TrEMBL record:
InterPro entries: Homeodomain-like_sf, HTH_AraC, MethylDNA_cys_MeTrfase_AS, MethylDNA_cys_MeTrfase_DNA-bd, MethylDNA_cys_MeTrfase_DNAb, MGMT_N_sf, WH-like_DNA-bd_sf. PANTHER family: METHYLATED-DNA--PROTEIN-CYSTEINE METHYLTRANSFERASE (PTHR10815). This is methylated-DNA--[protein]-cysteine S-methyltransferase. The keyword Transcription regulation applies. Its EC number is 2.1.1.63. It holds the Pfam family HTH_18. NCBIfam families: ogt (TIGR00589). One of its GO terms (molecular function) is sequence-specific DNA binding. Gene3D superfamilies: Homeodomain-like, Methylated DNA-protein cysteine methyltransferase domain, Winged helix-like DNA-binding domain superfamily/Winged helix DNA-binding domain. It comes from the Bacteria. Residues 8-105 form the HTH araC/xylS-type domain. Keywords: DNA damage, DNA repair, Methyltransferase, Transcription, Transcription regulation, Transferase.
Amino acid sequence: MSDYQRIATAIRFITEHARQQPSLDDIAAAVNLSPFHFQRLFSQWAGTSPKRFLQVLTLERGKFLLRQQLPLLEAADELGLSGSSRLHDHFVQLEAVTPGEYQRGGAGLAIRYGVADTPFGPMFIAQTPRGLCRAVFIAADSGLTDSLQTHKERSAAEELAALQAEWPAAELLEDRAAAQQLVATLFAARGSTSATAPLSLHVRGTNFQLAVWRALLTIPAGQALSYGQLAAQLGQPTAARAIGNAVGANPVAFMIPCHRVIQQSGALGGYRWGPLRKQMIQSWERLRLSGDE
């Protein structure tokens, strides 16, 4: 069997068995290759990983089912997903900043930003026409001399300066209403229309960072992986430290769920926006899954 035939057979297998959500091992076995060699061959020919290809198929099928007004739990079951929270995860798509966009520094781009309240404190949030580019919790503590409001304002100003440095040629427009709407979508109640609205992330990072952030998006709500497990999932079992750095560099709080990564011992571990906030988010997700939100 030629490489072309193997990939054609694999794509057909994935399409026909999408409802069973086949694993990499399942798909590789269908074309008589080891998972390692199949992953590399598929990525070379298709320009994406088998897992990502399956996610796209699942997302498109999910959009169709929801347009037919199918209840969320029924749609998730039809797609072979474990629950509505997994369906929600498929609606979060990550797009990388292109080399041209990076080189132009955002010239011709309008970025809307604002500060909005979330269940875990105020968040500085910004979006380009292609998606959410920054979401950062602010005002973690008020310090010894500042009032909470003063600290919040200073933190927001620092985040705005960081956004300007990242996109020096872009037009930055304050839009509090848009920020509030984005937050409403991010933290929407289970089962609401907002909770299943497609959400794009338009972020800037190295290829390695982007690979780590995409892997974070696959961790189900209410669950957690250790840095070592995440490294093994990425096929780089000796890169746990580098992966930890990439997790910490995540520019989009909550939606790229770095709060779902813990230490090998089971300890909570650090968090860019504070360990208490990490613990609160983990607890909140588990309560949502149990129906006690």
